[in-house]
Design brief:
Distance between the termini: 50 Å
Radius of gyration: 21 Å
Oligomer: single chain
Number of helices: 19
Structural class: mainly alpha
CATH class: Mainly Alpha
Number of domains: 1
Order of helices and strands: HHHHHHHHHHHHHHHHHHH
CATH superfamily: MFS general substrate transporter like domains
Number of strands: 0
Helix content: over 70%
Strand content: under 5%
Shape: globular
CATH topology: Growth Hormone, Chain: A
Length: 428
C-alpha cells in the first residue's frame, strides 16, 4: 500500500514540476532534523549535565570528542551502505535510530553513558543524515548541484535559529532529561513520514533525469553512464587529502564555536538571553547566504571558492574575540552565519565535484570520517583554555592560524576538478 501511494504521489507531482524540488524540500527538512546530533543543540546541555553529574566541562568535552571520533570511524561503512541500498532507504533507518538515541540519552548517568549517547547522536545526526542527504541531492542535480546543495542545507541554519531557544525553554521547563525525550519523539514524527512517502534515491528510479531534463520515454537512448573514481583511486589523489584537510579544519573550528558560542559571549559580558539570540541571527544569515554560496560554487572556480571559505572561517574565530557589546556580537553572528553556509555547502559539493557520482557514498563516507574526526577534537582546545587560562580569546586567535595556513597550501597545490578519463586514470 505504501509503495503504491508513493508511486501515485510521484506521478502526480512529476506531471506538474520536476520531482527533484520535492526531494530538496524533504532533504532540507531532514537537515533541520539533524539538530539533536549537532553541536549547537548538544552544547546547550553541557552546563546542566555538568551540574547534575558533577563532571567538568573538559571531561564532558572529552566524552563528546572521543564519542564523535568513534562515530566518525563508522562513516565509511555507512557510505558503502548508501551506495548499496540507496540514500532514501538508509534515511528511514537513520531517522528512526536518531530518535531512539535521543530518548536513550535522557537516561545518562555517567561519563561512559554520555560518551555512548554522544556517539549515537553524532553518528546518526551530524554524520549519517548529512551524508545521505548530500548524496541524494547530488544524484538528483548535476549542473545545478551547488545551488541545490545550498537549498538542501537551509534546514541547518533554520535549526541554528530555532533549536537553541526552543531547547533552552524545554530545559528550563521540563529539565534536560525530558527535553531529550521530546527531541526523540519529534524526530520520529517530523522525519519518518515524509521520508517514506516522498524520497527516491535517484531520478532514474522514477524514469527521470537530473536537473529536470526531459524525462526518459520508451525508445529513448539511455542517459550517459554515471562516472566517478573508485574509493581506492580517490585515496591516491592529492585533491582528496587537501579537501579532507580543509573541510576537516572547517568542521573542527565551526564545532568549537557552536559548542562554546554562548559561553564565549557571556565571558565578554553579554547576558545569556542575548548570547542565545545571536544563534538566531547566525541561522538567519546562514539561510540567506547558503543559496548564494551554492550558486557561486556552480559558476566560479572551485579551488578559489575553497580558498575563500577558509578565510571566512578565520574571520569568524577572530570576530568573536571582539564581540563585547551588542553591535559587535551581531557582526560576529552574521560572519558566523556565512561560515556555516560555507561549511555545510562545501561538505556536500566537493566530493562529487572532484570524484564523480559512481562511488560517491564510499568516497564521501571516508572523507566524512576525517571531517568528523576534526569535529571530535573541536571543543577540546576551548574547554582546555577556559579551565586552564580562564578565558577563550587567546586560544581563538591561535586557532585562526589553521585555516589561513591551509588556504596557502590550497592556493599552491590544489588541482582543478577533472572527471575520469576513458581509461580510468586518476589525475594527481
Amino acid at each position: 500500500m505504501l509503495t503504491s501511494l508513493r508511486a501515485s504521489l510521484a506521478r502526480s507531482i512529476s506531471g506538474q514540476m520536476f520531482y527533484g524540488w520535492i526531494i530538496l524540500v524533504v532533504a532540507s527538512l531532514i537537515m533541520f532534523g539533524t539538530g539533536p546530533g549537532q553541536s549547537h543543540l548538544i552544547g546547550l546541555f553541557f552546563d546542566p549535565i555538568s551540574q547534575e553529574l558533577g563532571l567538568s566541562r573538559t571531561s564532558i568535552a572529552a566524552a563528546y570528542g572521543s564519542a564523535t571520533l568513534f562515530a566518525a570511524l563508522l562513516l565509511p561503512q555507512m557510505g558503502k551502505l548508501v551506495d548499496r541500498h540507496g540514500p532514501a532507504t538508509m534515511l528511514s533507518i537513520i531517522a528512526f535510530g536518531l530518535g531512539a538515541f535521543a530518548i536513550f540519552f535522557s537516561f545518562a548517568t555517567g561519563w561512559i553513558y554520555l560518551a555512548i549517547g554522544f556517539a549515537g547522536l553524532r553518528f546518526l545526526g551530524q554524520g549519517s543524515l548529512t551524508l545521505s542527504c548530500a548524496n541524494m541531492t547530488s544524484q538528483w542535480f548535476d549542473k545545478k548541484r551547488g545551488f541545490a546543495l545550498g537549498l538542501m542545507s537551509l534546514g541547518f541554519p533554520i535549526s541554528i535559529a530555532l533549536h537553541p531557544p526552543l531547547v533552552q525553554w524545554l530545559i528550563e521547563t521540563v529539565g534536560w532529561r525530558e527535553a531529550w525525550i521530546w527531541l526523540g519523539i519529534s524526530t520520529w514524527i517530523m522525519l519518518i513520514p515524509p521520508i517514506l512517502l516522498f524520497l527516491y534515491s535517484r531520478p532514474s528510479d522514477i524514469g527521470l533525469r537530473p536537473d529536470g531534463e526531459a524525462a526518459l520515454k520508451e525508445g529513448d537512448a539511455p542517459p550517459p553512464a554515471i562516472v566517478g573514481y573508485t574509493r581506492a583511486e580517490a585515496l591516491s589523489m592529492r585533491a582528496f587529502y587537501l579537501l579532507v584537510g580543509g573541510i576537516a579544519s572547517l568542521s573542527m573550528l565551526v564545532t568549537s564555536l557552536h559548542v562554546e558560542y554562548t559561553g564565549i559571549l557571556k565571558s565578554h559580558g553579554l547576558d545569556g538571553q542575548t548570547a542565545a539570540t545571536m544563534f538566531t541571527i547566525s541561522g538567519i544569515s546562514a539561510a540567506i547566504f547558503m543559496p548564494i554560496v551554492g550558486r557561486l560554487l556552480d559558476i566560479l572556480p572551485t579551488k578559489w571558492m575553497f580558498f575563500g571559505g577558509l578565510w571566512v572561517q578565520a574571520a569568524s574565530l577572530l570576530a568573536i574575540t571582539f564581540a563585547t557589546d551588542l553591535p559587535s556580537a551581531i557582526l560576529f553572528a552574521v560572519i558566523f552565519g556565512l561560515n556555516n553556509a560555507v561549511t555545510m555547502t562545501y561538505v556536500g559539493f566537493m566530493w562529487p565535484k572532484y570524484f564523480g557520482r559512481k562511488h560517491l557514498g564510499s568516497i564521501q563516507g571516508t572523507g566524512q570520517m576525517f571531517i568528523i574526526f576534526g569535529a571530535s577534537i573541536g571543543p577540546i582546545p576551548l574547554g582546555f583554555a577556559l579551565d586552564t587560562w580562564g578565558e577563550y580569546d587567546t586560544m581563538l586567535r591561535l586557532l585562526a592560524i589553521i585555516p589561513i595556513a591551509i588556504s596557502v597550501v590550497v592556493a599552491l597545490a590544489m588541482p582543478h576538478p577533472k572527471m575520469p578519463e576513458p581509461d580510468g586514470q586518476a589525475p594527481a
